[in-house]
Amino acid sequence: MNSELKEAILALEKEKNISSGTLFEAIENALMTACKSHFGKAENIKVKIDRDSFDYSCYAEKQVVETPEDVMDDLEDIAYEDAVKIDPTVNVGDIVCVDIDSRGFGRIATQIAKNVIMQKIREEERSVIYDYYIDKQKDIITGIVQRYIGKNISVNLGKADGMLNEKEQVPGEELLPLDRIKVFVLEVRSTNRGPRILVSRTHPDLVRRLFEQEVAEVKDGVIDIMSIAREPGSRTKIAVRSNDANVDPIGACVGSNGVRVNNIVDELKGEKIDIVVWDENPGNFIQNALSPANVVAVFADPEEKTAKVVVPDYQLSLAIGKEGQNARLAARLTGYKIDIKSETQAKDAPGFRYTDYIDDEDEYDEEEYDGEPVEETDGEYTGLNPEDSADLSEEEPVSGEEMPEAGSDSAEDGEETVSENEISEDEISEDEVSEDDDSGEEISVEDISEE
Predict the structure, then answer these.
(1) Which residues are paired to 229 by β-bridges?
(2) Which of 219, 296, 299, 366 qualifies as a cystine partner to 308, CB 3.0-4.6 A?
(3) Residues ≥6 apart with Cβ < 8 Å to 9
C-alpha cells in the first residue's frame, strides 16, 4: 500500500471537501500528462490507481514484433525476445503491457504533473464552494466584516468571501471589522477566480428569513408572511396570516414580552417593525396596513388597484406618517395606490363620500312599491299590515261620559263635572231663565246646555 499517497488523498478530502474519486482522477490525468511530456506522446500509455490499496501503475501497451530490427518505435513496439521475459505466453503480434518508471521522469515532466494536480484541486474546490453557496442563494447567512474595499465591504462567509455593495448597505448603519452580521445572499456567480457572492442588508426578504429563524410557527407554515414593505434602517411593515384559528399571528410573531420581534429589531440595528393582519378584503387590509392610525372609511377599487381612505382630522398626520412614510409603506404592502383625506376634506372631495357610490337606478318610486305600508316612528320605520289597520278602525269610540270635556275644571283640578244629562230643561224655571245675570245678558236653556 502506498501510505504516502493515501495520507495525502485523505487529508485533501477532509480539508477541501473533495471526494477521493476526484483526486484519483486528477492524479491519473497528471501522470498521463507527465508521460506525454517525457515521451512526446501518450496514446498507448495507461495509468491506473487502486482505490483500496492506493497503489498506482503506469504502463505502455506495446506490440510484439519478431526481431529487434523490426522495432520501429520503442514506445509502441517490442521485440519477441524481450516480450517473453514479461509474459512467456505472448506471441508475435500480441499486445504486452510494459511498466514505466515514473520516477525517471525529468524535472519538467514532474512539475507539469504537479501543476495538473493542483489545478484540478483548485477547480474542484471552487466547484464545491459554488455548490455550497448556490444552495444558500435567497437565504440568510452569518458573516464577519473583513475590510472596506472602497465603499464596498468584504464579508467572510466561512468558506468564501461575500461582497456587500454600497447600494445594499443600510443607510446610516456603521459596520466595523470583526462585526458579526446576518446578510441575505442575493446572487452566486461562477467565475474563473472562484464563486462571486453578492450579499445584501437592505433586501425585504432579509426580514422574512429572520422571522423564519425566530418564529417557529412561521418556519412550520402555521403562519404565512403574505407581504413585506421595507425602508431599510427606518421602518418595516409585514402582513401575516394564520392557518390555525387557535394561533394569533401577531402574538406569535411578537413573542412573550416581545422577545421574538426584539431579537429581529436588534439584528437590524433598531429598525422599527409593524406587524399587521392580512385580510382578503382589500378595505380591511388597507385599514390594517395604515395602523397605528384609525380609519373611518375605505373605498377600494380592486380592478384599478386604487383606494380612497377617510381618517379623523386629528389622525391625518399619523396616517400619512413622517414624510409620507406610513402611507408609502401601506401602499407597498397592499399593492394599492392610496389617497388619504381627513373627514373635513372628504366632505367636499368626490369619491370620499358614501353617496358617491349609491346608484340612482336602484332607488324606487312609492307608486311602484307593492310592499307593506310604512309608518314613521322616531326616525325608524315599521310596517303595518292592512289587517292591523282594520282592527284599529273597529275599536269602540270613547264616549263623552268617559272622557272629560276639553277645557273643563275637571281636567285641571279633578273636581266633579256637570254633564249635559245632569241639567235638564225641567229643572230650570222660566223665571230663572227670564232673569238677567250680572253681566246683563240673557241666558237661555240652549246656552246652558252648550256650556
Answers:
(1) 237
(2) 299
(3) 20, 23, 24, 54
Best CA proximity match to 19, nearest among 113, 127, 115: 127
Q: Which amino acid is at 160?
A: A
Among 79, 109, 107, smallest CA distance to 91 is for 79
What gap in Å lies between CA 124 and CA 26, rounded to an integer? 10
- Using the CB atoms, write b or e for 237-274: b if 16+ within 10 Å: bbbbebeeeeeebeebbbeeeeebbeebbebbeebebb
The pLDDT of residue 25 is 83
Nearest-CA neighbor of 307 among 278, 287, 280? 287
Reference 126, options 180, 58, 51, 192; nearest CA is 192
The model scores a pTM over 0.70: no
Contact 210, 267 (CB under 8 A): yes
Considering the four listed CATH numbers 3.30.1480.10, 3.40.50.1820, 3.40.50.1980, 3.20.70.20, the one that applies to the domain covering 3-128 is 3.30.1480.10
The residue type found at 333 is L
According to the model, what pLDDT value does residue 2 have?
65
**Strands, DSSP E only, in 50-179?**
56-65, 77-79, 95-99, 140-149, 152-156, 161-164
**CATH tag for 136-202 (out of 3.40.1190.10, 2.120.10.30, 3.30.365.10, 2.40.50.140):** 2.40.50.140
Pairing of strands 306-311, 180-191: unpaired
Q: 373 in the Ramachandran plot: left (φ > 0), alpha (ψ -120 to 50) or beta?
A: beta
29, 36 in Cβ contact below 8 A?
A: no
CA distance 313 to 92: 109
Among residues 183, 178, 177, the alpha carbon closest in space to that of 199 is found at 183
pLDDT at 54: 74
Which residues sit opposite 432 in a β-bridge? Answer: none
Question: Which residue stretches of the chain have pLDDT < 50?
Answer: 1, 360-451
